Give the backbone structure.
Amino acid sequence: MKKIELRVIGLSYSQSQVGSYVIVLSDNDDFKRLPIIIKPSEAQVIALGLEDVKSPRPLTHDLFKSMTDTFGLDIQEVYIYSLSEGIFHTCLLSTNGVDEVELECSVGDAIALSVLYKCPIYTTSEIIDIAGVSSSSIEESDYDDGDDDYGDDYEFLNNIKDPVDDNIDKVASIDDLKKLMDAALENEEYEIAAELRDRIKKLENSK
């Protein structure tokens, strides 16, 4: 089955599932968007990575990368290969330069690791057809993607005008970075909260 490459184009606090985030991946060829609900910890890693903010202390995903780097392992790609009962089944293709191994992983962790390893994300045309949302359908006022879980997140999806825009600053808004900062403070991750605070100030001053 042909793999379709995806890229991260949006990250926002979810209005439909309190305490969660929505990450949107884009199919560059057909301009389709794939919204996926992820955990705050995963959103935090993705936001820090995309904003090029270094955590003063290694997060769990950073520790994982440090260990694999130490032992000469690398993640080549992330593959979202199946969607069953609303769950995206995902694996990591890893290698030590000789052998290749596929490791099962949650979709949120997989996307977070793809940001750290700067490796591609792939899925299948079947998943795009089932869960993907075309840019034209998002612009319609009677938006319905077939999944009520994303209905309340329509405004966020609608605000992503250009799925091939390379401006990373548009991936997460200042408001969403503030929510991640609040979550870091709540978890007593003060150094990370300070880094996010500085990034927010920089974005606010650039306006």
Observations:
- The longest strand covers residues 3-13.
